[in-house]
Amino acid sequence: MSGRSMTILVVAALVLLVASNSLYVIKQTERAVLLQFGEVVNPDIQPGLHVKIPFVNNVRKFDGRLITVDSQPERFFTQEQKALMVDSYAKFRIKDTAKFYTATNGEMARAMGLLSQRINNGLRNQVAVRTIQEVVSGERDQLMNDLTKELTVVAQESLGVEVVDVRVKQIDLPTDVSESVYRRMNAEREKEAREHRSQGQELAEGIRAAADREVTVIQANAYRDAELIRGEGDALATATYAEAFNQDPEFYSFTRSLRAYQQSFKSGGDMMLIKPDSEFFRYLKNSRGEK
Questions:
Q1: How distant is the alpha carbon of residue 56 from its chain centre?
Q2: Structural contact between residues 155 and 118, judged by C-beta atoms closer than 8 angstroms
């Protein structure tokens, strides 16, 4: 290879090197700042193809999309000095690239750590002015909205990021507190159960006593009515017998003797010890019953 060809190759390599260091592309999902000897000269580079001065300018690119920072569960105290374990996360995006680069040196992990600290501080302040019921259910949405507004202002001023949303994923009692609360709740439920059982037994005894009393009254009334009906029936039967006897006393005496014979001979015995002149043989001796 001749010296001329070598020179052309070297020049072409230098031109390619300079071009590769002079051109850069910013995507739609990226934010970037242009630095000149470490100083920000263009804080908001638009998406597209751009040119920079090689070895003089430097470009720092950042993710321009929504970023999630997931904070570790922290222990906070409510207005009644009750401890809660709060697990939260936040959505943010870079708003001011120059301030973001200055505050974090362009390190996303550092930005997420600083933002996580501010989220915990904000949560601590919001939880401290509310009761445990308000934190858990009553004003939970209001807490997150207030915290989002507060963090947006603080984060933009200090980190150059916009906090879009802060959400509380889970709220739990600390392990030591939850065990004591569980024991207390269990004791309260057992006490309540005993009270309900006692009230139930008292009510059952009252119902049982009322039922027994009602049964006694019903039986007494039934016995009274039965005796009255039985007495009326006996009276009616006696009157009927008396009327029938008065109409034909001889026939009544005859039929009564026949029933007596029937009952006597029904037993199947073959011996009877009766006086011959007894009234029992009245109609056996004479069909007219004459003595």
A1: 64
A2: yes
Structure tokens that stand for 84 in this block: 């809660």
CA 146, 147, 148, 150 torsion: positive or negative? positive
Angstrom distance (rounded) from CA 264 to CA 285: 17
Taking the domains of the chain in order of start, what are their residue ranges? Answer: 3-63, 67-172, 250-285
Q: If you classify domain 67-172 with CATH, what class do you get?
A: alpha beta
Nearest Cα neighbor of 90 from 172, 150, 30 is 150
Q: State pTM to two decimals.
A: 0.53
User: Could you read off the pLDDT of 155-166 as tens digits, one per residue?
Assistant: 888 888 888 888
Note whether 22 and 15 are within 8 A (CB). no
Would you say residue 181 has pLDDT above 70? no
How confident is the model over 239-290, as pLDDT tens digits?
887 777 777 676 777 777 777 767 766 666 666 666 666 666 666 666 554 5
CB of 52 closer than 8 Å to CB of 34: yes
Tokens representing 4?
Answer: 């001329």
Count of CA atoms in the C-beta half-sphere (13 A) of 144: 19
Calpha distance 165→147 (Å, rounded): 9
Burial bucket for residue 218 (CB in 10 Å: 0-12, 13-18, 19+):
exposed
Cα 20 from chain centroid (whole Å): 63
> Contact 153/128 with Cβ under 8 angstroms?
no
pLDDT bucket at 207, cuts 50 / 70 / 90: very high
Main-chain dihedrals φ then ψ at residue 88, nearest 5 degrees = -140, 170
CB 173 within 8 A of CB 181: yes
- The DSSP annotation for 154-203 comes to HHHHHTSEEEEEEEEEEEE--HHHHHHHHHHHHHHHHHHHHHHHHHHHHH
What is residue 278's predicted lDDT score, i.e. its pLDDT? Answer: 62
